[in-house]
Amino acid sequence: MSSTQHESIVDNEITTSQSQIPPESIVAISTVDVVGELINQRWTSSLLISITVVVLSTSFVMGVNIGGPNLYNGFIVPWTRGHPFPCQKEGSTSQWIARKWWNCVYNDTTKNLNGYYYLPEISTKTLIGQRLKDSMHNVLFVIGGFIGAFSGQYWYKCLSRRNAIFASMPFQLVASIFMIITLYIYRGYETDDPDQTTIDKATKNKDVAISFFYISRFLSGFSAGMCCVVSTSYLNEISPRALRGTVGSCHQLAIVIGILFGQIIGLPWILGRHNAWNWGMSWVGLLSLMGSIFIWTLPESPRWLVQERKQNEAAQSLRKLRQSNDIEVELIEFEEEETASNKQDLGILKVLSLNEFRWPLITSLVLNAIQQLSGINAVFFYSGDMFSLAGLRDEKVFWGILATGVINLIATLVALKLIEFLGRRPLIIWPLAGIIIVMIGLTILIVLNAKNSEDKKDALAIVSIIFILLFIILFAVGLGPIPFVYSNEVFAVEARAAGLSSAMFINWFCSFLVTLFFLPLQSASGGYVFLVFCVLVALSFVLLFFKMPETKNKKLQEIQAFWK
Predict the structure, then answer these.
(1) pLDDT tier, 7 (very low <50, low <70, confident <90, very high otherwise)
(2) What phi, psi does 530 have (nearest 5°)?
(3) What is d(CA 111, CA 100) in angstroms, rounded to the nearest whole number?
(4) What's the start-to-end Cα distance of the chain, in Å?
(5) Is the CB of residue 377 less than 8 Å from the CB of residue 515?
């Protein structure tokens, strides 16, 4: 008898026998095999490789697409407006010089180094509309994101987890190709004294190039929205229960690393130049291409295979992931969960109408909404403007942007340990309380900064920056990773696709609202814009304090008992 046949017989025996075993015997089996179960609650090379391939080709790419534009705004906005490049020279100061156009908007008397680069005087009313247009590349990214997240339930149902991840990658690959094309269609003109022929030639294909640019950002967002649903599901389903929080947090960790990496390659001496910024936003297509190849070497989700009644394949996948033959207890747990539901996948409307899913859905939606409505994407998309508003000047703004990425990464690494040590609930409740205090303090500091003399502004600016970095730390240890983990833990199998897709849709939709309205709100209200975030965080704190259960190391039935 071959080894494959032997494994098949053993797997069939396990499947057949477990259906005949009463619950009391299953408890006995779990007690007897506790050593084998503990062995499986560990890291293995197969698990690490699977996590790395998935997050590097999806989550990391998403992070680069979030962090990169922040440093390229000084080039992107004049480019989309149809202005020539405003700098006369390259070098360490070119990034700041390129960003001086913001000051030109606020004060038309500010002189730019390039005498052939002008911005007209803009009224306050027109300024708000212009700021809305200037953020369009970020707005389209998040529009693509919430459409991709909403479509996630259909990919989730129609394809296997691995195939669904693969399906998200071509969108980013096409987006990268479009991004490369943009700057070669329309490069602007770089001479100090261009003639009319040069100007006409440079602007001939401007509208086509900008259209390619916007389509690229939309496709990148669509791919990112899909990955938030399918990648996080895969990570949750391949991880042992004891590592579920840490493995699920790897999605957020990869996003954070991607944000920092996107900021680093935006340095003026790397790709932060007028003729290279599109490469800084397109090279991630190579990761999607590599991911679409290596994804086929990874094991399929064993939970999904059990759900599809493919027990033999589920056993093989689980052996590969755990690198152990002692998988019977975990297989029985998967079967118990599937048998407990034993229903067809439910649609979003059905999930909304059923009482048993009401609080899992509400708490998931609130968590994902406040993750964005806390204002975090305003920090990563527009931290340069926030630092300027807080009183930072010149190249210090640039280094402040990099500091946000470094602090975010360090705090997220700490969160990977805390999420299994302290649990999910404490890392949401108490950081939310801290964010409320920080937002109030930041508002006071920015208002004082605007009213004080120049000699006091530097000190107030430093304190304001500390508050912004403190906000990032509080966000990274809780609101950063936990919504993705929690949303995968609280839904029964039949409601998971609809629940997770709804949560990710709300996440991206709220990101869209912040991205769309932050700059106009900032222009209209100055530092008081943070009070809007503060009120929203306070409301979510009250609801989650009373209705969010702890999910660490708990089975689904134990979690659902909290709301009964």
Answers:
(1) very low
(2) -70, -20
(3) 9
(4) 52
(5) yes
* Closest residue by Cα to residue 152 from 258, 224, 74: 224
Q: What is the DSSP letter of 91?
A: S
Q: What is the domain-level CATH number for residue 45? A: 1.20.1250.20
370 close to 538: Cβ distance less than 8 angstroms: no
**What digits encode the pLDDT tens for the residues 130-181?**
666 777 888 889 889 889 888 877 887 788 889 999 999 999 999 999 998 8
User: Could you write out the DSSP letters of every residue in 401-444?
Assistant: HHHHHHHHHHHHHHHHHHHHHT-HHHHHHHHHHHHHHHHHHHHH
pLDDT by residue (tens digit) across 323-337?
Answer: 888 878 878 877 777
**Interatomic CA distance for residues 262 and 141, integer angstroms:** 15
Alpha helices in 265-375 (DSSP H): 277-280, 285-294, 302-307, 311-322, 328-341, 348-353, 358-373
Residue in this structure with the two tokens 């391939």, named with its chain if needed? 53
The reply to whether 420 falls in a domain is yes
Q: Which two tokens stand for residue 462?
A: 């430093």
Number of domains in the chain: 1
Residue 400 domain flag: yes
| Tokens, residue 265 | 């390659």
**Domain extent at residue 488:** 29-563
For the chain, state the CA radius of gyration: 25
User: Is pTM beyond 0.90 here?
Assistant: no
For residues 232 and 500, is the Cβ–Cβ distance under 8 A?
yes
Position 12 in a domain: no
- Answer for the pair 435, 471: CB distance below 8 angstroms, yes or no: yes
Residues with Cβ within 8 Å of 206's Cβ and at least 6 positions away in sequence, in order, are: 82, 186
